[in-house]
Amino acid sequence: MAASSLPAEERPLLLLLPGPDDLAPAMRALLSHDQVRAFALPAVWDLVWGQVDAFQALRDVPRLDLGTLDALVAYLRRAGTKEALDAHVAMVWGLVSERVREWYLRRGALSVLGSIFKVSRPGRSFDPPAAFVRDRVLEARFEAAYRLHTVPGATRHSDAPPEEASVVIYPFDLADKGGRAEAGPAAGKAGAALEIFAYESGRERHRQLLEAVAAEHGYVALDPSAESPSTAGGMARTR
Question: How many CB atoms lie under 10 A from the CB of residue 116?
Answer without folding.
Answer: 12
